[in-house]
Inverse folding.
């Protein structure tokens, strides 16, 4: 980098000597344009490499976490490798919102830290370039990544969410593969329950076989088959299971005609066989993908335009519900004040204002009070139901607004984290995977915790959705300005010797004051 600056200074001297006495205008304005171009290429190359590596590593770690969570739903179901790979691809696309900010933060710290560690950043500053001018190519690149993150969140994110939810639902509903365990009933095959006392894993020979037939759901286990031993194999197309049973009995209860209970005889057929072949359809074990229309209406499957339309629709529904509730209250409830003095209620002078309950018998008064209480309870239930409906719609509106803000949040968070990582790398002057990685992970944890807390509070209705989604960016934005200023002014806030010297001065001052007092 120093040689590159010296060459540019030499070219600048030649340029000045050629045109100092010339009246002709030069063909180019900036003699260091070649240097700036090479500098931009150098910075972009230095950033792209760590960015791709850290992004893939973060994505891999998050994918392993996903597998750890859903390993029980994936194991033992005979899923094809293509299905698992497809599920992992969709899961990776959903985890980009976590992997991308972390990759930008780590790569920016590593890139600028490596330049500062090898004094390349110092050489560029000595050539008269400010920090912002030096990292301008990276700023442009980050802005492009931010715009791409928005288009990803708006266009690709809903599709991958839909595919992921549909495929995950299909996988979780998939029945376990055909695998008999000794002494345990296997109920994966539709309408059959099979138990084998012992199974040879090599020859697939069975002993003490017991089979319950449930093909008639109204009759229960009408057919029961028991055999001393048997053999199990599947057809070449894996469509049918062929069980060859030896030395067994079958019991079949017959359906009898409707008759009186005391006249029923409960007939059944018992059959002994030396060999019997049972062919069972395995179509219930086939993997069937669920219909995507079941999940299309969810807010996670919508883009910005669809979320705006859905939010307006929910707002109108809430307003209509509130209007209907107010009309219901006016129509059915009336607050009155009884100003009649009951001590004078029996006076004939009251006329039509006479308290009507006094004209009723005791039983009629009790009946009237019970009806009034029942009517009040019903009104309270109706009001609570209407209020719960309004609250649920308000919660759904908040979730739509949270998803709407998420589309823009990812791009802005990438830009803010870059303006934290790049100045911080220039300040700590360390590259590689050591100290920069530790600092980046610590800052990302702060960013992630604030984001999760804000989103949870927004979902619970404690704060507005836009506050919950943007709170992490608002908190970290002043830090990015502070670090950028310190890096531009060559501050050494990360130098431990400064703080050590400050503490030494502080303790010396305290010791001096103590001596003076003594």
């Amino acid at each position: 980098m120093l040689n590159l600056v010296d060459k540019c200074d030499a070219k600048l001297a030649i340029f000045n000597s050629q045109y100092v006495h010339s009246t002709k205008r030069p063909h180019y304005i900036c003699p260091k344009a070649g240097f700036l171009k090479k500098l931009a290429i150098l910075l972009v190359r230095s950033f792209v490499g760590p960015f791709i590596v850290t992004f893939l590593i973060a994505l891999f770690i998050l994918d392993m976490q996903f597998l750890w969570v859903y390993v029980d739903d994936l194991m033992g179901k005979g899923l094809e490798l293509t299905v698992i790979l497809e599920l992992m691809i969709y899961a990776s696309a959903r985890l980009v919102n976590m992997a991308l900010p972390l990759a930008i933060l780590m790569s920016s710290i590593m890139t600028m830290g490596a330049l500062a560690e090898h004094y390349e950043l110092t050489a560029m500053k000595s050539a008269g370039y400010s920090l912002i001018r030096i990292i301008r190519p990276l700023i442009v690149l980050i802005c492009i990544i931010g715009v791409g993150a928005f288009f990803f969140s708006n266009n690709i994110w809903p599709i991958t969410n839909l595919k992921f939810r549909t495929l995950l639902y299909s996988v979780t509903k998939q029945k376990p593969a055909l695998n008999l365990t000794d002494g345990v009933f296997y109920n994966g095959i539709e309408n059959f329950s099979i138990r084998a006392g012992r199974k040879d894993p090599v020859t697939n020979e069975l002993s003490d076989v017991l089979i319950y037939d449930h093909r008639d759901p109204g009759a229960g286990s009408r057919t029961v088959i028991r055999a001393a031993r048997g053999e199990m194999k599947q057809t070449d197309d894996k469509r049918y299971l062929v069980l060859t049973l030896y030395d067994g009995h079958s019991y079949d209860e017959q359906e009898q005609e409707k008759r009186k209970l005391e006249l029923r005889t409960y007939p059944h057929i018992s059959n002994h066989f030396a060999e019997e072949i049972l062919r069972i359809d395995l179509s219930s074990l086939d993997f069937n993908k669920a219909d995507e229309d079941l999940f299309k209406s969810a807010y996670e499957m919508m883009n910005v335009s669809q979320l705006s339309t859905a939010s307006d629709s929910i707002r109108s529904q809430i307003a209509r519900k509130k209007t209907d509730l107010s009309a219901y209250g006016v129509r059915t409830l009336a607050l009155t004040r009884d100003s009649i003095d009951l001590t004078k209620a029996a006076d004939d002078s009251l006329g039509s204002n006479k308290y009507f309950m006094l004209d009723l018998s005791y039983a009629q008064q009790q009946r009237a009070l019970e009806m009034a209480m029942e009517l009040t309870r019903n009104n309270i239930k109706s009001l609570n139901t209407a209020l719960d409906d309004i609250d649920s719609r308000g919660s759904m509106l908040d979730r739509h607004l949270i998803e709407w803000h998420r589309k823009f949040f990812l791009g802005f968070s990438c830009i803010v984290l870059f303006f934290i990582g790049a100045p911080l790398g220039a300040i700590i002057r360390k590259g590689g995977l050591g100290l920069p990685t530790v600092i980046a992970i610590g800052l990302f944890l702060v960013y992630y915790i604030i984001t999760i807390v804000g989103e949870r509070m927004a979902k619970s209705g404690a704060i507005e959705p836009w506050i919950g989604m943007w709170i992490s960016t608002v908190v970290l934005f002043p830090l990015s300005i502070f670090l950028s200023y310190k890096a531009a002014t060559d501050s050494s806030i990360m130098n431990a010797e400064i703080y050590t010297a400050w503490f030494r001065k502080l303790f010396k001052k305290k010791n001096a004051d103590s001596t003076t007092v003594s």
